[in-house]
Amino acid sequence: MIEHSDLPKLSIASLGGTVSMQATAGGCGVTPTLDCEQQLLQVPQLREMAQLTVTSSSLVPSASLSFNALLEVLA
User: Fold this and answer.
1) Residue 32 CB: number of other CB atoms within 10 A?
2) Environment class of residue 29 by beta-carbon count within 10 Å: exposed (0-12), middle (13-18) or buried (19+)?
3) How many CA atoms are closer than 13 Å to the CA of 75, on its beta-carbon side?
4) CA triple 23-58-66, angle to 5 deg
5) Which helix (H) or strand (E) is 44 found in, with range?
6) Which single residue of 32, 50, 69, 74 could bond 16 by disulfide (Cβ 3.0 to 4.6 Å)?
């Protein structure tokens, strides 16, 4: 078994986008609803492979990500 402190460090930021989208109630389309933690629940093995730091920087559809918003996240 690998000690937690021996694992590589990995930072993941989520902006929303297509991978975060879920069907809305009543079948009226899809909206971004899954934050970074919720998305990582789909790959629990990742927590065994790295020390994770996660953040959800925004929760918007891909088409709504502006260039300025991306620059703010990078800053």
Assistant:
1) 21
2) exposed
3) 6
4) 100
5) none
6) 32
To the nearest 10°, report the CA torsion of 29, 17, 10, 70: -160
Evaluate if residue 27 carries a pLDDT over 80. no
Taking only the tens place, the pLDDT of each residue in 54-74 is 999 999 998 888 899 889 888
Which pair of structure tokens corresponds to residue 3? 């000690």
Longest distance between any two alpha carbons in the chain, whole Å: 47
Name the nearest CA neighbour of 62 among 23, 19, 25. 19
Tokens encoding 16: 């929303």
CA distances in angstroms from 9 to 16, 24, 42, 52, 73, listed in the order given: 22, 35, 19, 6, 20
DSSP H stretches of helix in 1-75: 36-40, 46-49, 67-74
